[in-house]
Design a protein that fits this description.
With 416 residues, the protein is mainly α. Helices cover 82% and strands 0% of the residues. The radius of gyration is 21 Å and the shape is globular.
Amino acid sequence: MIKGGLAGRIGRMAGDSGPERVLVAASFVNRVGNGLFNAASALYFTLVVGLPAVQVGAALTIAGVIGLCAGIPGGHLADRRGARVIMMPALAVQAVSMAALALVESWAALTILATVDQVAAAVGGAAWGALVARVGGERPAMFRAKLRTFVNLGVVLGTVGAGLALAADTRCAYITLILGNAASFALCAVLLLLLPRYPVLAAPPRQRRWLVFADRPFLTFTALYGAMGLQYPVVSLLLPIWISEHTEAPRWTVAALFAVNSAFCVVMQTRIGSRIETPYDGGRAFRTAGVLFLVSCPMMALAAYAPVWAAAGLFLAAIFVHSLGEVWESSAGFALGFGLAPDHAQGQYQGVLGLGFNAGQALAPAILTTVVLGHGTAGWLLLALFFAALGATGPSLARWGMRTRLRPGVAAEATR
């Protein structure tokens, strides 16, 4: 009875239909693999392969920049040929390129394989967004909130597995992580075979091919969403450095905060995201996220002036507030990202949104380490005000976006 009840509860969390559960399972498997690899990849290439850290960083940067350019055409292809049709080959390419990393012995080989992987990831990511829109039906934002819950859980489990390999610290253990990630891509592609073949949605007549580039509200949201994405490296990059260099908090505080952040997002994403469906909801949620970051960032800064255990408690409280902001921000992204995109062009719209977000993530380390760390407490306060200002634009942006949907708007403008 207990097992049946637990299985039923997990099934209800995963989705209300067979296709939803398939996509949740595929996403979960894929993210477990990502968690296995991402936590240990840098150490493998530097300590096991023997490449200098500068070369590893350069290879990954080149791959990331080239990959940024692939999402938009990949999304457009998904709109015209079918999201699943594009997603499965992209996953197969990632499986092969990931497995081939186990054979890397030079910087050139790493650069080529990482670039192939990032191009496939960008194409697959845009197609994935379009696939979520089809599977989620009338409530794609709520469904993606469920997906994100299992994504977070998968990353946590994968990271635990990576920790075991790091503890072993052998070439075999690292290779196991790489092949495990490759297998996750392959299994994800196989699971997608269980989805129905959704018909391609025809575009309205006389509409320009690249509709998204005429959609000024969506492009504006993409820029704001990419900028708000700086909140993710606050936890993964900025906070650990701040703790180690400016406070007396014990070093295990960093690991504890990671765990709290991940666990909180797993628990709260669906509860909050299920209530944020329309673009109007998304605009208000974006504003709420900005307010929460306005509170959390000064709390993190003030911990530098607190006694050791008080600092640990202040960091814990700050991470609760920041994690709540993360859930509201991601839910806003789902509601606006899907709600402002026409059904027949979800792929190209998700490709543009992914480009904006990934560009923000690429710039984040330089911004956070120079502007925030370089100015200490004042930098944290500037960051808090920056997030609050971004969030404040949410409601007006949603209204602007919906006005263009209520008339032929974007479509009419696009035919000029």
